[in-house]
Amino acid sequence: MNMELSRRGFLKAAGVGVAGSTLGAFGFPELEAAEAAAIRPFKLTNTMETRNTCPYCSVACGIIMYSKGDLRKGETAEIVHIEGDADHPTNRGTLCPKGAALKDFVKAETRLKTPMMRKPGSDKFERVSWEQALDRIARLMKDDRDANFIATNQAGVPVNRWTTVGFLAASATTNETAYLTYKVVRSTGIVAFDNQARV
Amino acid sequence: MTDPGSIAPNPASIGRIPAPPFARLPDPRRLFEARRERLEFLAQTSALAPYLRFIAGIAAGQNAIQDELPEPQLPPADEIDRAREFGMPPLDRNRIELDDILSETLSRLFDAVRPLAKPDEAQAALDRVSAAEPAQMRDFVRSVLADEIPADALAEHVYVAAGLQVHFARLAAKLDKDRLPRIGDGTCPCCGGPPTSSLVVGWMEAEGTRYCSCSLCGTLWNVVRVKCVLCSSGKGIGYKEIEGGPGTIKAECCDNCRAYVKIFYQQKDMALDPVADDIASLGLDLLLKDSEYRRGSFNPFLLGT
């Protein structure tokens, strides 16, 4: 479908350099040569534009993240700007104040990057491994469920409720993730549950 | 997409922000005049000033000749409907005839360009193209519309391309913008032309969306951002610019088809023109010449770069 290929092929086949450019043909070849010489000391920099979903709430607005550096060439990339994705049907480029401040959210020094635990009686959080964190969460949930699970109501009808624990899930997930989250959480009997797939 | 009167709910659209228009038709009276103004402004600081002033002169001619030209005729309505039905552009470039109106457009443009200051090569090419017989002129027109401009008569064809831009912009302006078919990301919905460059616009109700600019008729059509306009790949798109630049002119480089098309961020600089700034940013093309990417856009005033 690339019509320019045939044109380019022709120009290449004719074996033309500067003389085969519009500038050359109109009698301005020295301008092109001078521009080439003037531009040579300059370098090119690369910006990436990457689509993503805002992580804050269940509206799940589309965003475009701008980063400097080229990951494809093995460089590191750093986010320099985030804005609403004008092509996204939900927000059409608009963002709420929280979404508009996403870059600070990404770059915040206090941003949670690993599981942290504040032990009983301690005044500070310590880093723990995912293994430790998940084991601890599972242990505490199991203990709480064993202690507080309501299998039947006063009339003896089975209700299988677990009302002492709540569960809040993230917004920027796929339908499949939201489905699985719902199935897992509801099958434990948790009542207070928001998987942010409600909009 | 959002229609408050619609009964069927659409969970994706929640606001009252309208979808951006698919296409913006050219205003031939404004198009070339704006290009001339921009070229003359850029010539004040550019090292390419003599060339920019020459193209500005052509743009002035493209605008001025319209005063006395008869109105061009659109194809019959049933042909336009049939083109739409089969997803083809309403202006069929293969069936454009060298009729009286097109001939007059071309000869008037050549007359308008004649008094401009220009190098001998440009003058000689103008003399040759002005004297061309109808049969030869037909060949020129056919080559330009096929985007197959031979290197040995490049300048002649560029003059013809400038005339065709006027003719097609006036034709496209008469089309119904709400009944244009979406043909492909890199194909103009009016005339099937390839893009010169693309613009991220700052228009009311379409801010931050991207429009491709047709190299022939000047129509702007909407294409999703972060997507190659040549091969429609959304993977491996990078934006290259000259280091230290203001971030308003970048080359959208695609790792899939290894080509680039320039993208202008009009929401940062309203004055950017899809054709004028493409020419004035020749330096970016020259830097990319040694890269793995080739120029994939079409601009008759910047061929062979």
Short summary of the structure?
Chain A is of the alpha+beta class and 199 residues long. Chain A has seven helices and eight strands.
Structural overview:
The complex is a heterodimer of chains A (199) and B (305). Chain A is α+β, with helices and mostly antiparallel strands and 199 residues long. Chain A has 4 domains: 37 residues, no CATH class; 61 residues, N-terminal domain of TfIIb, CATH 2.20.25; 28 residues, no CATH class; 51 residues, no CATH class. The radius of gyration of chain A is 29 Å and the shape is elongated. In chain A, strands 1-2-3 form a 3-stranded antiparallel sheet, with no helix packed on it. Chain B folds into 2 domains: 141 residues, Alpha-Beta Complex (FdhE-like fold); 121 residues, FdhE-like fold (Alpha-Beta Complex). Chain B is built from 9 helices and 8 strands. In chain B, helix 2 packs across helix 7. The chains are: A alpha+beta (199), B alpha+beta (305). The interface between A and B is large, with 54 and 75 residues. Strand 1 of chain A pairs antiparallel with strand 5 of chain B.
Judging by the overall fold, what is the CATH architecture of the largest domain in chain A?
Single Sheet
**Helix percentage of chain B:** 25-40%
Overall shape of chain A: elongated
Distance between the termini of chain B: 41 Å
Radius of gyration of chain B: 20 Å
| Average predicted local confidence, pLDDT of chain A | 86
Name given to the CATH homologous superfamily of the largest domain in chain B: FdhE-like domain
| Strands ordered across the widest β-sheet of chain A | 1-2-3
Number of domains of chain A: 4
CATH superfamily of the largest domain in chain A: ADC-like domains
Largest interface by Cβ-Cβ < 8 Å? A-B, 54 and 75 residues
Q: Roughly what fraction of the amino acids of chain A lie in strands?
A: 15-25%
**Uncertain residue segments of chain A:** 1-19
CATH class assignment of the largest domain in chain B: Alpha Beta
**What is the count of structural domains of chain B?**
2
What is the C-level CATH assignment of the largest domain in chain A? Mainly Beta
- What structural class should be given to the helix and strand makeup of chain B? alpha+beta
Beta-strand fraction estimate of chain B: 5-15%
Cα-atom radius of gyration of chain A? 29 Å
